[in-house]
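JOB MANIFEST
job_type = single_chain_structure
chain_count = 1
residues = 117
[input]
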Amino acid sequence: MAFGYRYTLERQGNGWWLVRFPGIPEALTEGAGHSGPDRAVLPSLVTAKLAVYETMRVRGWSKVKLAKELGMSENSVRRLLDLHHSSQMWVIDDALAKMNAKLPIDLPKLRSTGKAA
């Protein structure tokens, strides 16, 4: 998983652009900054939280099931998925591990400038 999500742009009749994220069908917006031609940059914690959400959706897990597996309240899982709440990465790692998933990090390759540091 990279620190960003692929998106598609759809020109609307009113001149606006509708932005869809194939990996997150529930997410829509009308415009976005981007780091390249087709990737919106997200903070790393948001990316990690979305990885938990996507894994839950693919596996068919509810918040109640994840809470039970983690030994925490459903409210704690709600906070874990809340993009505005600051969560600990170890909790995200535990949640993914319970669902037999991992959070790979795909860092962009840096080009050498030929200058010594």
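[summary]
The two ends are 30 Å apart (CA to CA).
The chain has two domains: 4-41, 44-98.
exit_status = 0
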